[in-house]
Design goal:
Blueprint lengths: L13 E7 L2 E10 L8 H4 L5 H14 L11 H16 L4 E8 L7 H9 L11 E4 L5 E8 L8
Helix pairs in contact: 2-3
């Protein structure tokens, strides 16, 4: 999905429109096993071009966090979360969600996800959905789902 600039499109692993009770939710799922969430803001934003500055400011505004964000957080989490919000706007859903579906037996990278959620004043607990109301009034949910590692082998 395009983020409305000349930068790279967002490539969410799974996108779904979900109906829950009387609400529709745009859900972006990021699948992981043991790979990281990519570069930190510090590494991604080294000597930033005007395009990178504009994109990061846009992403922060979309997810309701202060720009510039802490540089030890992972850029991919900002990117994927903003794409969930953008899809919610595009499909005119009531809410948005960004879910990490981890198949890591050790919950590898849960600490990076938890640090990102701390930016919203939220606590990361596997299997628990937490939410924050955005400045737009839409609720943005976050979750860490634990996949069964038996699905890693054929």
């Amino acid at each position: 999905m395009s983020l409305g600039d000349a930068g790279r499109d967002s490539q969410t692993d799974v996108f779904a429109l979900v109906k829950s009770k009387n609400k529709t939710i745009a859900v972006a799922v990021e699948g992981k096993v043991n790979e990281s969430f990519g570069p930190t803001i510090r590494d991604w934003y080294l000597d930033p071009s005007p395009g990178k500055q504009k994109r990061l400011e846009f992403l922060c505004g979309k997810i309701g966090v202060t720009f510039p964000p802490p540089d030890d957080l992972h850029y991919q989490l900002f990117h994927r979360t903003a794409s969930a919000v953008l899809e919610a706007e595009r499909f005119k859903t009531d809410e948005a969600a960004m879910i990490v579906h981890s198949f890591s037996p050790d919950n590898k990278w849960l600490d990076a996800y938890a640090a990102f959620l701390d930016l919203f004043g939220l606590e990361a607990n596997p299997g628990q959905l937490v939410g924050k109301t955005l400045p737009s009034g839409r609720t943005l949910y976050f979750g860490w789902a634990e996949g069964n590692p038996r699905f890693l082998t054929a």
